[in-house]
Amino acid sequence: MKRFHVILIKPSKYDEDGYVISWFRGVLVSNSMAMMNALTEQAEHDKVLGPDVEIITHFYDETVRR
């Protein structure tokens, strides 16, 4: 089986002084990331890349740090 990796990145934002705005915890999920995930899951379900292709999704949110 072939694998197709989808990488979703929510880029960081900067304040007026040029520092990255980040949060210790992400309270709200980005709506755009949720929609992209739903579309990716639907593509996996419908096998739009073929019956022998597995779609793997990776999420990166640059505004939330551990």
What are the defining features of this structure?
66 residues; alpha+beta; two-stranded parallel sheet; two-stranded antiparallel ribbon; 1 helix
| First-to-last CA distance | 34 Å
The percent range for strand residues is: 25-35%
Q: What is the helical fraction, as a range of percent?
A: 10-25%
The whole-angstrom Rg is: 15 Å
Largest sheet: 2 strands, parallel
Structural class: alpha+beta
Q: What series of H and E elements makes up the topology?
A: EEEHE
- Main sheet strand line-up: 1-4
How many β strands by DSSP?
Answer: 4
Number of helices: 1
Mean pLDDT: 84
The coarse silhouette is elongated
Number of domains: 1
Uncertain regions: pLDDT < 50 for 5+ in a row?
none
How are the SSEs placed, and which strands pair?
Blueprint: E1 2-10, E2 13-14, E3 20-21, H1 31-46, E4 53-61
Parallel strand pairs: 1-4
Antiparallel strand pairs: 2-3
In words, what does this structure look like?
- With 66 residues, the chain is of the alpha+beta class.
- It is 24% helix and 33% strand.
- The chain has one domain.
- It has 1 helix and 4 strands.
- It is elongated, with a radius of gyration of 15 Å.
Brief write-up:
With 66 residues, this protein is of the alpha+beta class. 24% of the residues lie in helices and 33% in strands. It has one domain.
